[in-house]
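Dear colleague,

Following up on yesterday's call, I've attached the two folding results inline so they're easy to grep. Please treat them as preliminary; we haven't cross-checked anything against experimental data yet. The first protein's sequence and structure tokens come first.
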Amino acid sequence: MPIIRPVRREDHAGWLPLWAGYNAFYERVGPTALDPAITAMTWARFFDPYEPVFALVAEQEGQLLGLTHFLYHRSTTAIGPNCYLQDLFTTPEARGQGVGRALIEAVCARAKNDGAARVYWQTHETNAAGRLLYDKVAKHLGFIVYTRVL
């Protein structure tokens, strides 16, 4: 089982392909790819003490197998912060080996320790493999997400 730990600055070369894989899964490649400035800012936020954005990685034998990014925010329905697990990705070779679950559990443990009232996330309805895991570790409350690009 891999070690789940906070990302370090020296992980950039190993994190970048995971980030690219995550974005490719959501079809952010080619003409719809993220601006490189977004990737650079995302990476920088993990190390900025004033940002509520964090990253964990799964490492085994010196190789990064997965990542998760999460952030804290206020809510009108709780005093403590909520934790939004924004990104979760594992290498194809690591899937089905408990890496995704370990990353989710690590975020939940960290959020609980930090006083969060809940951890939540969203995924695309076509992410059948991810949803099999999510249905085992969390409860789908039936909410539908709407987005308006500005």
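Below is the second protein, in the same order (sequence, then structure):
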Amino acid sequence: MEKVDTIIFDAGGVLIYIEETRDSILRRLLKSSGYEEMTTTNALSILPEFDREYFKHNDEIINWKDEKEWWKRRCDKIAEIIDPNSEELKDKLFCLALDSFQYKLYEETIEILEILKGKYELVILSNATATLDWCFDLLDIRKYFKAVIISSYEKCVKPDVEIYKITLKKICRKPEQCIFIDDRRSNVETAEKLGMKGFLLKREKGENLYTFIKALE
């Protein structure tokens, strides 16, 4: 029987959380800039349709270049509706509403990573794009992980079994050598079907990473 020596973490909802979403930041920025609430609400209401149309004519986001192009066009569209003569507003929305700065560590994250780093190889597997990937550097936690696997780079997402197989290949591990922790049941179930030991973290029920540590004992 293979020894369990690797823990694969989801990121959002497990190690980190987002303090404010992009659309919330956009609304706050526009209000602070003096634009009327009704004007702001009308402009933001077009975003779902904008996204649908954008991805009809463009490939899915894979890397930062793709994300930047989508985000720039999105911000430009809002600015054109609200204040078509302001190039500065386009730049303000583009620069200040990116959400990498909004990712925060749960209170216990660093302590738990310090406990685990000498006992296990640690890996990230997250449904995310480049701007979440950057937060591992911004929060100075990339150093804890053998690998950071980001779904957009791999062109598939959890719970698709393919991204789990990609992860195992990249870290040179068999499923039975790994524990997988996520806050979504479907993601954990796929890992278990593949042969990993799964742990569903239910923060909404008061669980945290200390709960996970106890389960390892």
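For the second protein, one point worth flagging: The chain has a mean pLDDT of 96.

Best wishes,
A.L.
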